């Protein structure tokens, strides 16, 4: 790695410092993050066991939920090992290309999660507004195409971010004030003009998160109109009850996503607060998603109870 006037030319490694200002307590912060990761991994693995094996859950909503669970597992695997190594073992260095790979996987999986939430909103719209055609519209082939399109969109658009970073050669620092390789945290290290990178980050964010959020909101406006036109109160409550889990997951994901997105670019949030919240944004939704859907679905609750009951019996 060559140095030119305190600048770094084509750096081979970067240094992740974790949470700036809280280095002295990072060791202890790692334990609640580990607990959240374990809950997320356990919950989503259980969903991936139950949904394929339970015939009554072979419906579009739960197929999308299985994809969401796989995405959440990938997100935890992409961020947690290195973050905990920084907190517990001071293992702060990372190869520059590995950093870009982590950046790609974290942001691509975030974008996939957003796309799956949009697909789930469309499923709820069809199920409530056009129930007689629900199975004929959302066939297996259509579901597969939707999932593939979501994956391709995330891969192509997010793939632009590390490619554009690779065209930068001179950096004023190799120290990233973050617990993982976040796009803007890496771009801010550049000593060259990075306006294209910043513009591309905004474009990808608004093209995916903004587009998805708008269409999810439109779906729920149409859903609520259809629900309020139902004559029987019980029918209205039953229809609304089928959406509550998705609404909760949608709100937690997008509120935290846009706070992290805007505070890193335009806000004046203190770095420790921003980094803590952005890490919470990545790890808490994967832990909450299986809990929310597990609590709402009787079949999932029953199968989870069977899994733990059989496990308890086998240990006696």
From TrEMBL:
Gene Ontology molecular function: G protein-coupled receptor activity; olfactory receptor activity
Superkingdom of origin organism: Eukaryota
Record-linked Gene3D superfamilies: Rhodopsin 7-helix transmembrane proteins
Assigned GO CC terms: plasma membrane
UniProt similarity note: Belongs to the G-protein coupled receptor 1 family.
Function according to Swiss-Prot or TrEMBL: Odorant receptor. Putative odorant or sperm cell receptor.
Sorted UniProt keywords: Cell membrane, G-protein coupled receptor, Membrane, Olfaction, Receptor, Sensory transduction, Transducer, Transmembrane, Transmembrane helix
Record-annotated G-protein coupled receptors family 1 profile domain positions: 43-293
Protein name: Olfactory receptor
Alphabetized InterPro entries for the sequence: GPCR_Rhodpsn, GPCR_Rhodpsn_7TM, Olfact_rcpt, OR51/52/56-like
Main location: membrane
TM spans (from-to): 27-50, 62-89, 101-122, 142-165, 202-227, 239-262, 274-295
Compartment list: Cell membrane; Membrane
Membrane topology (UniProt): Multi-pass membrane protein
């Amino acid at each position: 790695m060559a140095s030119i006037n305190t600048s770094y030319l084509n750096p081979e490694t970067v240094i992740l410092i974790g949470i700036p200002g809280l280095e002295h307590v990072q060791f202890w912060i790692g334990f609640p993050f580990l607990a959240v990761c374990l809950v997320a991994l356990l919950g989503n693995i259980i969903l991936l066991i139950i949904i394929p094996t339970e015939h009554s859950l072979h419906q579009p909503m739960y197929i999308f939920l299985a994809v969401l669970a796989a995405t959440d597992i990938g997100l935890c695997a992409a961020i947690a090992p290195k973050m905990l190594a920084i907190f517990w073992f001071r293992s702060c260095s990372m190869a520059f290309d590995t950093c870009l790979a982590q950046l790609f996987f974290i942001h691509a999986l975030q974008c996939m999660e957003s796309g799956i939430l949009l697909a789930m909103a469309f499923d709820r719209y069809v199920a409530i507004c056009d129930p007689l055609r629900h199975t004929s519209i959302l066939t297996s082939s259509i579901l597969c195409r939707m999932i593939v399109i979501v994956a391709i969109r995330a891969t192509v658009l997010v793939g632009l971010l590390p490619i554009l970073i690779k065209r930068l050669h001179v950096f004023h620092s190799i120290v990233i004030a973050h617990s993982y390789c976040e796009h803007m945290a890496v771009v801010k290290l550049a000593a060259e003009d990075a306006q294209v990178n910043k513009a591309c980050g905004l474009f990808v964010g608004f093209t995916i998160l903004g587009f998805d959020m708008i269409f999810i909101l439109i779906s729920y406006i149409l859903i609520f109109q259809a629900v309020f036109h139902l004559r029987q109160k019980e029918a209205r409550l039953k229809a609304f009850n089928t959406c509550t889990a998705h609404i909760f997951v949608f709100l937690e994901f997008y509120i935290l996503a846009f706070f992290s997105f805007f505070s890193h670019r335009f806000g004046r949030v203190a770095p420790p607060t921003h980094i803590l919240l952005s890490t919470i944004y990545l790890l808490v939704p994967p832990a909450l998603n299986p809990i929310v859907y597990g609590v709402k679905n009787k079949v999932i609750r029953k199968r989870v109870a069977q899994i733990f009951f059989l496990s308890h019996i086998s240990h006696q």
